[in-house]
Amino acid sequence: MSVFASLDAELDAWTALRRVATLWLRDDDACHDSPELRRLLAIAAAHRIPLALATIPALLDPGLPKALADAECATIVQHGFAHANHAPPGDRSAELGAHRHRRAVHDELARGRDVLARVFASRFVPILVPPWNRIADDLLPALNGLGFTGLSRFGPRKCCVPSPGVCEVNAHVDPIAWRRDRRFIGAASVVERLVSQLRARREHACDTDEPTGLLTHHLVFDAAAWEFLDALFAHTRRHAAVQWQDVAHAFGAARATSVRSA
Question: What is the 3-state secondary structure (H, E, C) of 83-134?
């Protein structure tokens, strides 16, 4: 039996309802050119999969813009500022937690946004991806004033607009077991998680309008992870119920949802 059998069954259920299963791809920790980044870009381009590259401003290498020059599939979003942990020992890692003065955090985020906007111009979209997917609640109201229009964390969103002027679209499936061995969890496990999230959307157990987000980290992928990613893209591209969305469409749909809900 194909590893994608359960995914096909779930997507067939979407087709029966005449609904579209929207997906999007976010890759974290982009800083520099590398063979792994080139491989990700090549796979995404081969299958016409739009890609949001969460880039760390303070660690940005001059080689990254050159590597992305012809990568039409890639959009740049902001991955914090330096991906530095400021949490005290014993707390979960966080750069944008409640551990520092708000002004210092605001200044870093604004500086990072300016760097990415200057280097990548229109390819940069002011969406904030907090390192470790964590951000203190009291930082949210300031995001739009700092120039951000979007936020992306991990897990089903609690609401489409967590603060005025900011839409949230999250990632939901991570193929890496970070707390165990930092290795690929296996094709069957990734498919199981994709199916679970899509089923929850179809059955209205979560926000059905939020695209299902696949989160990758190209720098830690092994051969099995790369093989699976290539196969997943190829397989989903062949199913009529699937639509892979770029950043503009994923977050544009979030804005439309917020207007309808107002």
Answer: CCCCCCCCCCCCCECCCCCHHHHHHHHHHHHHHHHHHHHHHEEEEECCHHHC
Tens digit of each residue's pLDDT (9 = 90 or more) over 172-229: 999 999 988 899 999 999 999 999 999 999 999 999 999 999 999 999 999 999 999 9
d(CA 105, CA 117): 18
pTM given for the model: 0.94
Which residues, 6+ apart, have CB-to-CB distance to 118 below 8 Å?
A: none
List the domain boundaries for the chain. 5-261
Homologous superfamily of domain range 5-261:
Glycoside hydrolase/deacetylase (3.20.20.370)
- State how far the Cα of 10 lies from the Cα of 26, in Å rounded to an integer: 22
